[in-house]
Specification:
single chain; about 325 residues; alpha+beta; 3 domains; 4-stranded antiparallel β-sheet; 7 helices
Length: about 325
């Protein structure tokens, strides 16, 4: 009896599990699902990223109903090679674009691409290429390549390309989450011309900086010359003043020497003697040769003459 009860319980569990597999299906938060009845879409389970609807759903078993699931995570797309595009001013450039897209409507995605990611990417590549050529043709070459960063307009160009294909992509059941320019190049026949133009622009910038530097240097030199002239004028004035004072003092000495020529001769001899004996040296000269004649003056006369000279200097 216990054995029959266990067998019955297991059988019932198997029936429940088999029935759950036949009559239910699960949608994960990374998926979107489409239920078809006899091959025709009847339920579109689009799990919105902002309001996810994952969970367990009921269905009729096959062949009545069938569940198609698609990955709703972001799919990365990137062109395999450069494509040449012409700008508004007739310059050719090479552009590679990347994009990220998601499946938002599984029914439209199935109808448009038979539910195949590869076919969706092939269609998206053509769509992006046409939009890129159209948008690039509306912009001048300087919006892509310029020595002035303020002239570059990559964000605006990428936004225009993305917005121009968004409605077409939506009609196919997909959404373009982001789009950008990955690589930018130049054909060989215009590369040298672009480099020459960039060089000319840089040379103009260098010329402007050089002119500003020369103007600043001229101002500095002018100011330095003016300061130099002022300093020299002040120095000349001070020298003239000092020279005048010195000449006045010298005039006083000359007046004293005119009154006392003996004192003048004595001082000159004394100075000459000091100069000749500044260093240790041996001189063999006649004592009567000035200023060595001072050394031959008798001691009594040598003591008397300075007193007479001092008295003459002190005399009014």
């Amino acid at each position: 009896m216990n054995r029959n009860y266990l067998t019955l319980t297991i059988g019932i569990l198997l029936v429940v599990i088999f029935g759950a597999l036949l009559f239910t299906f699960q949608v994960r938060h990374t998926e979107v699902a489409l239920v078809t009845t006899f091959g025709k879409p009847t339920r579109n389970l689009n799990t919105n990223p902002d309001k996810p609807e994952p969970g367990l759903y009921g269905k009729w078993p096959w062949p009545i109903q069938k569940v198609l699931k698609f990955d709703k995570r972001i799919q990365n797309f990137e062109a395999d090679k450069f494509s040449e595009t012409q700008t508004r001013d007739g310059k050719n450039i090479l552009v590679t674009v990347y994009a990220g897209w998601t499946i938002t409507d599984p029914q439209l995605f199935r109808e448009r691409f038979s539910g195949e990611i590869v076919r969706a990417e092939q269609s998206l590549e053509r769509l992006i290429s046409d939009a890129k050529n159209n948008v690039v043709g509306q912009h001048p070459f300087s919006d892509f390549i310029s020595t002035n960063p303020k002239e570059l307009k990559f964000p605006e160009i990428e936004t225009q390309i993305r917005e121009s294909i968004q409605q077409t992509a939506k009609a196919s059941g997909i959404h373009i989450n982001f789009l950008g320019i990955k690589k930018l190049g130049l054909p060989e026949n215009i590369t040298q011309k672009v480099f020459d133009r960039m060089k000319e622009e840089r040379m103009r910038v260098v010329g402007g900086i050089k002119a500003e530097g020369e103007a600043a240097a001229s101002k500095i030199k002018t100011a330095a010359d003016r300061d130099r002239a002022e300093i020299l004028a002040k120095a000349d004035a001070a020298a003239i003043e000092i020279r005048g004072k010195a000449e006045a003092e010298a005039q006083k000495s000359y007046e004293i020497f005119e009154k006392n020529p003996a004192l003048a001769v004595l001082l000159m001899k004394n100075d000459a003697l000091k100069l000749s004996l500044q260093e240790r040296s041996t001189l063999i000269l006649d004592q009567r040769t000035p200023p060595l004649d001072l050394l031959s003056v008798p001691q009594s006369q040598a003591q008397t003459e300075p007193k007479k000279i001092n008295e003459q200097v002190a005399r009014p």
